[in-house]
From TrEMBL:
Superkingdom field: Bacteria
Gene3D superfamilies xrefs: Phosphohistidine domain
PEP-utilising enzyme mobile domain span: 527-597
Segment forming the signal sequence: none
InterPro entries assigned: PEP-util_enz_mobile_dom (IPR008279), PEP_Utilizing_Enz (IPR051549), Phosphohistidine_dom_sf (IPR036637)
Name of the protein this chain belongs to: PEP-utilizing protein mobile subunit
GO molecular function, one term: transferase activity, transferring phosphorus-containing groups
Length: 611
């Protein structure tokens, strides 16, 4: 029977006063409509934890275009289609499209087997081909010229018979950028759901064969993976070791000014320049990761802002000098993984079950590294390139008076940006003034204010009708949305206000000071031994894991990126609590039980962080 309590209906959520125009400017297909009241939606704070700028919403649009296509029509997942998204007050809400008709499921199952199994059988070859496609796409984006409008067309245009003026290039470059970005997301989902699918099939087998097995035990059977997304942190560790070997480690301290350190090393002579050469080796390509999850233009890459890797260097250097091991505990993870796989195999009675078990765990080990590895190429390297190219259009429009600074471009939707570009093309061609400088500044100012107002608004974790069952595997495993979780979110918290329940992501019992980090900008507040409390984290925060003793998140399931990363670094963690960042106060003492998925608030004392 359904719980009589329910989340607010979409139609009851009001636009924040003063932001009506900003809301109305969003594409019509992202606005809630009356029919949406009959559906269940949840706030995708895993990928969009902060209010979205108008341009940045292309990250949801392009992603769901591709995700849905591969779920619904390419690989044909039997019980789920794509994801619809709506945006209100800068927040992205998503709703799955389940398949419930048995005949349709049977038809889809048949198509899924002939399509997905081809990928599983040829995984290594297809994945190698995938990397070639992604590297070619990245090269295409890097090769796009900077958009510019000369006062006079170069004489070569006339003397070569080129027959195309410079203003046409603006439209050509911009449309190539959009095309490349949408294409990237298709590549992204070519393998992703199949990677999850292989793990989920193994997961379901284990749950049936070993009724008492924990989710954590199953997930540890696929730990110890090699994936590109862990490489940036490994490069920072390498740079720490090289600093000690070269005797330049004393230049790195917690309060260093990065530009001064680089200048000092350059002046130091051979050893300083040798370390700088090592830095350049690491930067291309491994520092093409951003400090977020690839969905916000202002989450800059390590290459654009060296703060994240340099913040990690002093801690790593100190550990290297003390003779401590700073590597991920790969040998231990693999030894534990293999022991678990072997122990549970022995519990199976029949040779047939053992053969199925062997086949499923082998497939999971083959395909699962993609679940993290693809992020380096897609959400990070390519997305950084994409946003930096949009910045170039921002700079061109700012030079021509459309707004004050290049970052203002991100307050325009991608449709509006094309119209601004065409406005500039027309003005250049006619020799008159563009109309944009009289049109955009007031709109940009209004939308800047909207972002600030939206940031202060409390966001409901879900909207609409609570379903009796949640059976979309991605929604359960990735976002951690289960019926039990929804019930706890609906609870007013009075049953036990000192306890929060979530998914047991990585074992360990830790007590410490909670540091509530609500955005990437607050990472610098973390002190040695703190327990990180956040909405969500991802592999590019790995350099700060050396500082923290445990982690707690609002969102995420047992296969969320945060859960996977916590296991890979053996960091005690509880994910998917729903409300940790609002119920735990910064500085409170808390206990994290990563084995039971339980967080306990121990006292109300707040300890302020430095900085």
């Amino acid at each position: 029977m359904s719980d009589p309590k329910s989340f607010p209906l979409p139609s009851s959520v009001k636009v924040v006063p003063g932001t009506e125009n900003a809301q109305a400017a969003l594409p019509y297909y992202t606005q809630f409509v009356p029919e949406d009241d009959a559906r269940f939606w949840f706030y995708n704070s895993m990928h969009f934890p902060e209010p979205m700028h108008h341009f940045d919403l292309i990250t949801a649009e392009a992603a769901y275009c591709a995700l849905g296509a591969f779920n619904t029509r390419v690989h044909v997942l039997p019980t789920t289609k794509g994801i619809d998204h709506r945006v209100i007050n800068g927040r992205v809400f998503i709703g799955g499209v389940p398949v419930t008709d048995p005949d349709e499921i049977a038809l889809r199952q048949e198509k899924f087997q002939e399509r997905a199994f081809y990928y599983y059988e040829n995984w290594e070859d297809l994945y190698a081909q995938w990397k070639d496609k992604m590297k070619a796409l990245i090269a295409d984006a890097q090769a796009l010229p900077r958009p510019e409008l000369p006062e006079w067309e170069p004489i070569e245009t006339t003397h070569s018979g080129k027959g195309i003026a410079s203003n046409h290039s603006l439209l050509d470059i911009y449309r190539q950028q959009l095309e490349g970005y949408f294409r990237m997301w298709h590549h992204h989902f070519e393998f992703l759901l199949l990677g999850y699918g292989a793990y989920l099939t193994f997961f379901d087998f284990c749950k049936r064969a070993f009724p008492e097995i924990s989710d954590q035990a199953i997930s540890r059977m696929v730990a110890g993976m090699e994936a590109e997304i862990f490489k940036p942190d490994e490069e920072v560790k390498r740079l720490a070791r090289r600093a000690v070997e070269l005797g330049v480690d004393h230049h790195f301290s917690d309060n260093m000014v990065i530009e001064d350190v680089l200048a000092a090393l350059d002046q130091l002579g051979d050893k300083g320049r040798a370390w700088l050469d090592e830095l350049e080796t690491s930067r291309n390509p491994w520092f093409n990761v951003n400090v977020g999850d690839g969905f916000y233009h202002y989450h800059r890459s390590w290459n654009d802002d060296l703060s994240m890797p340099f913040a990690a260097l002093p801690g790593y250097i100190e550990k290297v000098k003390a003779g401590e091991n700073i590597e991920r505990p790969m040998d231990r993870l693999i030894e534990e993984r293999d022991q678990l796989v072997s122990d549970y195999r022995e519990l199976l009675d029949s040779d047939e079950d053992k053969a199925t078990y062997d086949q499923l765990i082998d497939l999971a080990h083959r395909v699962f590294p993609y679940v993290e590895g693809h992020k380096f190429y897609c959400e990070h390297w390519y997305t950084n390139l994409f946003f930096n190219k949009i910045r170039e259009f921002g700079a061109l429009l700012a030079e021509n008076g459309f707004f004050a600074e290049e970052a203002d471009v991100f307050h325009l939707t991608h449709y509006e940006l094309e119209s601004a570009i065409i406005d500039l093309m027309l003005a250049w061609s006619s020799g008159s003034q563009p109309l944009g400088p009289g049109h955009w500044p007031a709109i940009v100012a209004e939308r800047k204010q909207a972002i600030n107002l939206w940031a202060d608004e409390t966001v409901p974790p879900a909207l609409g009708v609570v379903p009796d069952v949640i059976d979309d595997p991605a929604i359960v495993m990735l976002w951690g949305i289960t019926r039990d979780n929804l019930d706890s979110w609906l609870d007013d918290g009075t049953e036990n206000e000192k306890e929060l329940k979530g998914f047991a992501a990585c074992a360990g019992l830790v007590e410490g000071t909670a540091r509530v980090v609500k955005s990437v900008k607050e990472i610098g507040r973390l002190q040695q031994g703190d327990i990180l409390v956040c909405q969500v984290t991802n592999p590019t925060w790995a350099p700060i894991f050396q500082k923290i003793s445990a982690a707690v998140s609002d969102i995420g399931g047992s296969m969320s990126h945060m859960a996977i990363v916590a296991r890979e670094y053996d960091l005690p963690a509880v994910v998917g609590t729903g409300s940790a960042t609002s119920r735990i106060k910064d500085g409170q003492r808390i206990r994290v039980d990563g084995s039971r998925g339980l967080v306990t608030i121990l006292d109300d004392e707040e300890v302020p962080a430095n900085g």
